[in-house]
Amino acid sequence: MRPALDRDVDVRPHPHIGLSTVTYLFAGEIMHRDSLGYEQAIRPQEVNWMTAGSGITHSERFERARAHGDHLHGVQAWVALPDGQEEVDPAFSHHSGGDLPQWNEAGLVGQLIAGSAYGLTAGTQTHSPLFYAHLDMGPGATAEVPHGHSERAF
């Protein structure tokens, strides 16, 4: 067992406005709590999409990792809300791994986290046209990045 995490690593309650935060985990668990009343654990291959809009306060706690010495590995992306939508009502949604489209083709295993790509559409509500995918590529596998997006991150 790994050493337990100190409480100092918890992300204490703090505010956001005008953007969405998107949390996706590869390993471990995070407990999300927010001012809308949501309390939701997120685990590998799941997504938490929090739209701050006009304002939300939330915390992220690493309770399981602290208690059991678990490993934690994930990504949190911040997605700007489009002009004129920065003040939308705050919202939170959680999507389990089974709810997100997946595919396995020629050494490429993929999961569509948000948006539309590769002939699939995720049920995650977004405020602008985008796609967010987790691609696990085996030896020799290739993936074509869908065209028509002005910004990309890999």
UniProtKB/TrEMBL annotation:
Note on cofactor: Binds 1 Fe cation per subunit.
An example molecular function term from Gene Ontology annotations: metal ion binding
Record-linked Pfam families: Pirin
Residues involved in Fe cation binding: 14, 16, 58, 60
Cofactor: Fe cation
UniProt xrefs under InterPro entries: Pirin, Pirin_N_dom, RmlC-like_jellyroll, RmlC_Cupin_sf
Family of the protein in this entry: Belongs to the pirin family.
Entry protein name: Pirin N-terminal domain-containing protein
Organism: Aureimonas glaciei
Organism lineage: Bacteria, Pseudomonadati, Pseudomonadota, Alphaproteobacteria, Hyphomicrobiales
